[in-house]
């Protein structure tokens, strides 16, 4: 059955790129509502922004949503991953600014907050998008593929010149609490040279090594405390991919493979998937199919203690 959060919960922090303080509140919503954002700091006009692939204003650094009136909300990927990973299908997300707070750079604080409030089952069957044809998009050496499967599976490969990152790859089936156990506490990461370049261009103003990001420089991890996982970077890329795939508008049943892929390429993949005739269909999930969706079977003790 479809779900929502039992009671509202708020999170306050700083936007990673804007450096501006923001508070985001997740509120319960009824069946078939889906996930919508609402800009509470806007007094006039359309304040609602759909959490959907066709509302993405593609950016290489984060996932940015925009409504028909031009109102935007950015850096939604970690929150979207948490909602998907906790099996939340319906929610109204209110925010008093243009960017979701980065918190500790991972999705773990969102996951812990959602699970503290609890999940409410609604009186409507959950519907999902089932992938029927393999679709691939590329951008230079980067590629993203979605193929038929009986559950959501994510494979990811990264390659960085920095020895502290190097070549990493991981594969994970995204049900039975695996997102919370394996991915949700992995933080956003970047190279020191990228931090310098972004901040020189007025970006990453809220980024702080150790507090909300892992910073690498050659063979060194500059963030105090080091890594939460030896392969934390590829785990975070998988976290991002789940959040970006959650913008399908319903749970996705398919096998995603990302090779050096980022937010923009994953959105390009969703656009290609829905533009390809016969590549995807919406299905009403029976109990067996629903048991293979992200978030099913998540238990409190599976959530990492770092949150």
TrEMBL record:
Keywords: Hydrolase, Lipid A biosynthesis, Lipid biosynthesis, Lipid metabolism, Metal-binding, Zinc. Pathway: Glycolipid biosynthesis; lipid IV(A) biosynthesis; lipid IV(A) from (3R)-3-hydroxytetradecanoyl-[acyl-carrier-protein] and UDP-N-acetyl-alpha-D-glucosamine: step 2/6. The active site is at residue 263. The keyword Zinc applies. Its EC number is 3.5.1.108. One of its GO terms (cellular component) is membrane. The keyword Magnesium does not apply. It catalyses: a UDP-3-O-[(3R)-3-hydroxyacyl]-N-acetyl-alpha-D-glucosamine + H2O = a UDP-3-O-[(3R)-3-hydroxyacyl]-alpha-D-glucosamine + acetate. Pfam families: LpxC. One of its GO terms (biological process) is lipid A biosynthetic process. Its cofactor is Zn(2+). Coiled coil: none annotated. Zn(2+) binds at residues 78, 236, 240. GO terms for molecular function: metal ion binding; UDP-3-O-acyl-N-acetylglucosamine deacetylase activity. Catalyzes the hydrolysis of UDP-3-O-myristoyl-N-acetylglucosamine to form UDP-3-O-myristoylglucosamine and acetate, the committed step in lipid A biosynthesis. Belongs to the LpxC family. HAMAP family: LpxC. This is UDP-3-O-acyl-N-acetylglucosamine deacetylase. It comes from Sulfitobacter pontiacus. The gene is lpxC.
């Amino acid at each position: 059955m479809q779900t929502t959060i039992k009671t509202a919960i708020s999170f306050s922090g700083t936007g990673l790129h804007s450096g501006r303080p923001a508070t985001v509140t997740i509120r319960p919503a009824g069946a078939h509502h889906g996930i919508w954002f609402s800009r509470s700091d806007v007094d006039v006009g359309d304040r609602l922004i759909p959490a959907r692939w066709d509302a993405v204003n593609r950016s290489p650094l984060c996932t940015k949503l925009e409504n028909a009136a031009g109102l935007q909300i950015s850096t939604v990927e970690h929150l979207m991953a948490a909602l998907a990973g906790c099996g939340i299908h319906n929610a109204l997300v209110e925010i008093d600014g243009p960017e979701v707070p980065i918190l500790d750079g991972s999705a773990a604080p969102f996951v812990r907050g959602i699970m503290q409030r609890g999940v409410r089952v609604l009186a409507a069957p959950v519907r999902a998008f089932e992938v029927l044809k393999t679709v691939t998009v590329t951008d230079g050496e980067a590629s993203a593929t979605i193929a038929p499967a009986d559950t959501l599976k994510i494979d990811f490969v990264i390659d960085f010149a920095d020895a502290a990152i190097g070549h990493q790859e991981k594969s994970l089936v995204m049900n039975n609490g695996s997102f919370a156990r394996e991915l949700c506490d992995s933080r956003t990461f970047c190279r020191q040279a990228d931090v310098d370049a972004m901040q020189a261009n007025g970006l990453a103003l809220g980024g702080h090594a150790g507090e909300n990001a892992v910073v690498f420089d050659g063979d060194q991890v500059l963030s105090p405390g080091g890594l939460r996982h030896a392969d934390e970077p590829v785990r975070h890329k998988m976290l991002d991919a789940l959040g970006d795939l959650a913008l399908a508008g319903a749970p996705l049943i398919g096998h995603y493979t990302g090779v050096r892929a980022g937010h923009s390429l994953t959105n390009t993949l969703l656009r290609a998937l829905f533009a390809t005739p016969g590549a995807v269909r919406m299905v009403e999930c029976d109990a067996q199919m629903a048991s293979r969706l992200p978030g099913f079977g998540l238990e409190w003790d599976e959530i990492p203690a770092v949150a």
